[in-house]
Amino acid sequence: MQWIRAVVLMFSTYTRIKVPQIKWDDKAMRLAIAFLPFVGIVLGCLMWGWYWVCTVFEFNAVLFAAVALALPIFVTGGIHMDGYCDTSDALASWQTSERRLEIMKDPNVGAFALIRVCVYLLLSFALLHELFLRGEILGLCFIYTLSRCFAVWSAITLPNARKGGMLAAFTDNADRRAAGIVLALLFAVSVAGLLWVAPPNGIMALILCLPVTLWYRGMARKHFGGVTGDTTGFYLQTIELFMLVGLLAGGIL
Fold first, then answer.
1. How many CB atoms lie within 10 A of CB 23?
2. What gap in Å lies between CA 156 and CA 231, rounded to an integer?
3. Which of 229, 198, 186, 210 is nearest to 76 (CA)?
4. What is the DSSP-derived secondary structure letter of residue 73?
5. Helix residue ranges per DSSP H, 35-139
6. Alpha carbon separation from 140 to 47, 143, 221 (Å, rounded)
7. Domain layout of the chain by residue ranges
8. Quick check: 10 pLDDT over 90?
């Protein structure tokens, strides 16, 4: 029962999907963070469904890319993209770690965040468009689960930069053993699925995850003193973009 409550907590917090309202309790909170990748499974299924619709009705690549770009934002409410924006502003400030953490709390959006998110969306649109034209979309269905596996792993293995906040609420007393088991299973299944439907593309996408992860872990420690919900969203969005690059590059090389 606690596992079900934990899944519901994740979906009620990190998506706009309507789920039953339940009381936040300590037992469910300890397990909840492990189930964030389940959101990625839903996104992957929706992406596959949209691709099927486009092939059946012969929609063009522009329409596919536009909706595929918007789907994750609509489903999650843009919570991870918000973290990408806040972290971009903080990184561009060249201030101390303490000041950067304050900047991320500012509800106003800075110029650097706007610039970076526009570049991010343009690149994502172009990559999705090209993948559709090449008929190499199936690998896309797995990257949303994998990105969340990476994000949760970093969140529970790096120190929290703040004493409080949403991420701290889920990670401070998390059952790391249970989370590790769930993450390992989801990661293994997602990697197997990715390599099965798109072997060369999937290999390249996974290879690119390594430098991104190493850079992020060093950056988070150096510039923020650890991770926050915003930096985790930044990492999730960044690794998804690089996996799109990998999916395309693997099909070209």
1. 7
2. 13
3. 229
4. H
5. 37-56, 61-76, 79-92, 97-105, 111-133
6. 8, 6, 30
7. 2-252
8. no
Q: Which residues of 111-140 are buried (b: 16+ CB within 10 A; e: fewer)?
A: eebeebbeebeeebbebbbbbbeeebbbbb
Residue 12 contacts by C-beta under 8 Å, 6 or more apart in sequence? 19, 21, 22
Residue carrying the six token digits 């510039």: 223
Q: Give dist(CA 123, CA 130) in Å, integer.
A: 11
pTM of the model: 0.93
| Dist CA 8 CA 112 (whole Å) | 35
Residues near 146 by beta carbon (within 8 Å), at least 6 away in sequence? 37, 40, 187, 190, 191, 194, 206, 209, 239, 243
User: Tens digit of pLDDT for each residue in 111-167?
Assistant: 888 999 999 999 999 999 999 999 989 999 999 999 999 999 999 888 888 777 777
Q: How far apart are CA 162 and CA 108, in angstroms?
A: 20
Q: Which amino acid is at 80?
A: H
Q: Give φ, ψ of 239 to 5 degrees.
A: -70, -30
Residue 42 CA to residue 141 CA, distance in Å, equals 9
Residue 139: closest CA among 87, 202, 56, 55: 202
